Amino acid sequence: MKTLWEVWQETVRRYPDRVLVTEAEAGRTWTGAQLTSAAEQLAGTLAGRVQGFALPNSANWFIHFLATQKCGGIAVPLEAGRQAPTLPARRGACFIKTTSGTTGQFQPIYCTAANLLADGRQVCATMGINPTDVNLALIPLGHSYGIGNLVMPLIQQGTPVVCATGFVPRQILAFIERYRVTVFPTVPAVLRPLVQLPAAKTPSSLRLVISAGAPLVPELAAQFHEKFRVRVHNFYGASEAGGICYDRTGRGAGVGKPLRGVRVTIRKDGRIAVASKAVVGTGRFVLADRGEWSKRGELILTGRVGAMANIGGKKVAPAEVEAALRKLTGVTDAWVTVLRDPRGHDLLAAAVESALSRGEIECELAGRVPLWQLPKLWFLAAALPRTDRGKLDTAALRRALEPTAPALR
């Protein structure tokens, strides 16, 4: 099996003078040959197999990543402000994904070159991403989504990347137009302000918009298509498995059908199992997510493995109420959890992203779930707090939903 450095060298030989990385704000460009030269120089200064680095999306990020691969090391991209943890080297690994998983605790996921290359191939083959495309890198390069959709296409087939660090919504459209971006991998939290821009025009080069990292509600997808005449394609993956499912039409239900080379099954307990060469370890992984198949063979997520609430002797999964909330018109996101009141009784608490009032939401929700399943505590906001991965900041939401929170009295 070839290393990532060897694959990169083959790509650079094909496109030595092509601009492969552009830094959007400064307009600075880097060819494959320039990136290789900088990586070779840096590689001579690196010590130790595990190389942690906290860098924004930039040519420097790629240089550090490539330098580590040249040395046969293990790259560990970190979030800004986080110190590199002490992690042991592991035979065959070349990259460590960092995730909080379902526990909220730091978890290292050791990936081999074979895992990453398979993920890149599966993503490109399914989504039709090719060397003539131009990717816009707003999502962090070091996260699983960024590795599969931005880093691997560049390393394997020379798909150029335009890197952006800070931005406002209108600036995103300007970057796409200026640098002739064709593929835009993003998250719902970025799509929302884009649909609210007045008199915004669709960049002429844009052909593919991908949404992952958090649930994409149909209302938001429809608003984006109506405004920009480009459909948003749902994409579903996991750090341990890479890309899993993709809505090829932009009109489907749920998160679409499995990527090429990926096998997805639903276990008897409803949990989703994935098998592919991109899956770390044994090549098979069982997720905490539960799902079901639509009549068209598309995967629909139905919830996650987690705590059940006991409400008056009746059991209810918070994910069921959460899913019902997301289906309400005017609700762009929701999170439901189980809390305990001072007497030790379970109660449901909901954080909802919407301009609707609590009364309006409760009225609409009452038509979809039994009255006893209505949440007792609410936190409403036009924009719920999110992590830099585009996912809801559940720690912040849990603090806001505690029964003693002043905002909820």
Explained architecture:
The chain is of the alpha/beta class and 409 residues long. It has eleven helices and 22 strands. The strands form seven sheets. The protein has a five-stranded mixed sheet with strand order 9-10-11-12-13. A four-stranded mixed sheet has the order 2-1-8-7.
Q: In percent, how helical is the residue content? A: 25-40%
Strand content: 25-35%
Overall geometry comes to globular
**Tally the helices: what do you get?**
11
Strand order of the largest sheet: 9-10-11-12-13
Structural class: alpha/beta
N-to-C terminal Cα separation, in Å? Answer: 60 Å
Give the biggest beta sheet: 5 strands, mixed
Quaternary state of this entry equals single chain
Features of the shown structure:
5-stranded mixed β-sheet, 22 strands, 4-stranded mixed β-sheet, 11 helices, disordered C terminus, globular
Topology:
Elements: H1 4-14, E1 19-23, E2 28-31, H2 32-43, E3 50-53, H3 59-70, E4 74-77, E5 93-99, E6 107-112, H4 113-127, E7 135-137, H5 144-157, E8 161-163, H6 169-178, E9 183-186, H7 188-195, E10 208-211, H8 218-228, E11 232-238, E12 242-246, E13 257-258, E14 263-266, E15 271-275, E16 284-293, E17 299-304, E18 309-311, E19 314-316, H9 318-326, E20 331-340, E21 346-354, H10 358-365, E22 377-381, H11 394-401
Parallel strand pairs: 1-8, 3-4, 7-8, 9-10, 10-11, 21-22
Antiparallel strand pairs: 1-2, 5-6, 11-12, 12-13, 14-15, 15-16, 16-17, 18-19, 20-21
